[in-house]
Design goal:
The protein is α+β, with helices and mostly antiparallel strands and 169 residues long. The chain has one domain. The chain is built from one helix and four strands. It has a four-stranded antiparallel β-sheet, with helices on one face. A hairpin with a 4-residue loop joins strand 2 and strand 3. It is elongated and about 85 Å long. The N and C termini lie far apart (94 Å).
């Protein structure tokens, strides 16, 4: 064993302030690059879910009409999950009467927690029994004419599926 005077002193190695600042700067730069990308992916995922909701409701309504001879009727009035549209729920007494549970397990709800809101932002449905229109109002992220769910009555605020006679409601 070496005498104490010849042994190496315990190393007191750590990060310098400059090294820490460099690491923090790199992490912040990566976060700045990733944040918009992840936000856009989240918006795209919500819009994908909304498109899926439109397709599934349209299929359920077609099935309902085939078996019952008409669409679920709202007396030609809009019903929805938003405040000004009745705050209807997502079960059998929801905004599309009679569709749950035999044709859909539950009525769709917007994937964005900000919807439905106290106004008209949310999902809404209208039918006179012969025609229907199902709309996602103020919830989608992107509005463009080539969208298969383009709504001529809400070109900058909504997506829709409808029967031919309900298209312009």
């Amino acid at each position: 064993m070496l005498p104490l005077s010849l042994q190496h002193p315990a190393s007191k190695r750590g990060f310098t302030l400059l090294e820490m600042l460099i690491v923090v700067t790199i992490i912040l730069m990566l976060a700045g690059i990733l944040a918009p990308i992840l936000g856009e992916e989240a918006r795209n995922a919500r819009d994908g879910r909304r498109a899926s909701d439109l397709r599934s409701v349209a299929a359920a309504l077609a099935n309902y009409k085939q078996l019952n001879g008409s669409y679920p009727d709202t007396g030609d009035a809009w019903q929805g999950d938003a405040g000004t549209l009745g705050n209807f729920g997502y079960d059998a007494l929801g905004y599309i009467p009679g569709l749950v549970p035999n044709y859909l397990p539950y009525l769709p709800k917007d994937p964005d927690p900000n919807f439905p809101n106290a106004g008209v932002g949310g999902y809404m449905y209208r039918s006179n029994g012969f025609e229907f229109k199902f709309v996602l109002n103020s919830t989608p992220t992107v509005y463009y004419v080539s969208n298969p769910f383009y709504d001529p009555q809400r070109p900058l605020t909504g997506w829709q599926v409808s029967s031919p006679g309900g298209y312009n409601w």
